[in-house]
């Protein structure tokens, strides 16, 4: 119901019909090791100089579609998703809604994030990693999306004042992401240090979602009674 006003088509012809995908994939597989082709940003976005938000692991895409529709002249949105079928369907919805500030890419963020954002003409102002695949088994932790190289790429390419938002309904995963971004305190500050209106619980997790809309995973997890663990960082301006 939170996405009802998007009026997205449920019946799509051809292969894009009832999209069934694997919930978890191995990003270390050789099939995901090829860097994504860099788009011609002038063809992708009406104004490629607008501030950019990148959602790593964009899933179905509804979360970014909702944001892009409400901020058509304010910013551009890029969804990076490792499951091709979800990207295909999301691109169909973009055409359906005639959104010229949103694009989805089939890519492995670990491999392609830096090269995708380094050539973007405008400033990278926001990066989100929301409820990523947990890869629970210890031997699979190396498959988790938040690894030191990606953290470094995000921080190095984020514009001063830009933000990084991470969240998970799995405490272990949330702590892992938190520890990695907290370790970059010389470059990042948590948002409650710069904005006193952003309240945290006693453990330092944000009490409220700052985005204005929940992701589908977030909705499902909270419906099941799970807690969402959130952190929002801002890059230092000096």
TrEMBL record:
<dbReference type="Pfam" id="PF02390">
    <property type="entry name" value="Methyltransf_4"/>
</dbReference>
<dbReference type="GO" id="GO:0008176">
    <property type="term" value="F:tRNA (guanine(46)-N7)-methyltransferase activity"/>
</dbReference>
<keyword id="KW-0489">Methyltransferase</keyword>
<dbReference type="InterPro" id="IPR029063">
    <property type="entry name" value="SAM-dependent_MTases_sf"/>
</dbReference>
<keyword id="KW-0949">S-adenosyl-L-methionine</keyword>
<protein>
    <recommendedName>
        <fullName>tRNA (guanine(46)-N(7))-methyltransferase</fullName>
        <ecNumber>2.1.1.33</ecNumber>
    </recommendedName>
</protein>
<dbReference type="InterPro" id="IPR003358">
    <property type="entry name" value="tRNA_(Gua-N-7)_MeTrfase_Trmb"/>
</dbReference>
<dbReference type="GO" id="GO:0043527">
    <property type="term" value="C:tRNA methyltransferase complex"/>
</dbReference>
<keyword id="KW-0819">tRNA processing</keyword>
<keyword id="KW-0808">Transferase</keyword>
């Amino acid at each position: 119901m939170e996405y009802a006003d998007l009026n997205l088509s449920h019946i799509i012809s051809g292969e894009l019909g009832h999209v069934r995908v694997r919930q978890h994939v191995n990003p270390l597989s050789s099939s995901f090791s090829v860097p994504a082709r860099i788009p011609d940003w002038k063809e992708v976005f009406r104004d490629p100089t607008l501030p950019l938000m990148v959602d790593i692991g964009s899933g179905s895409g509804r979360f970014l579609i909702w944001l892009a529709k409400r901020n058509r002249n304010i910013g551009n949105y890029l969804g990076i998703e490792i499951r091709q079928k979800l990207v295909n369907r999301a691109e169909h919805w973009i055409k359906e809604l005639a959104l010229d500030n949103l694009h989805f890419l089939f890519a492995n963020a670990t491999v392609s994030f830096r090269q995708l954002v380094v050539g973007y003409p405008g400033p990278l102002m926001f990066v989100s990693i929301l409820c990523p695949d947990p890869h629970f088994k210890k031997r699979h932790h190396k498959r988790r999306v938040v690894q030191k190289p990606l953290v470094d790429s995000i921080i190095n390419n984020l514009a001063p004042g830009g933000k990084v938002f991470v969240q998970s309904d799995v405490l272990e995963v949330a702590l892992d992401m938190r520890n990695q971004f907290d370790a970059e305190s010389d470059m990042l500050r948590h948002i409650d240090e710069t904005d006193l209106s952003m309240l945290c619980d006693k453990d330092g997790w944000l009490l409220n979602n700052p985005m204005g809309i929940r992701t589908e995973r977030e909705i499902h997890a909270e419906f099941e009674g799970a807690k969402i663990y959130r952190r929002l960082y801002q890059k230092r301006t000096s």
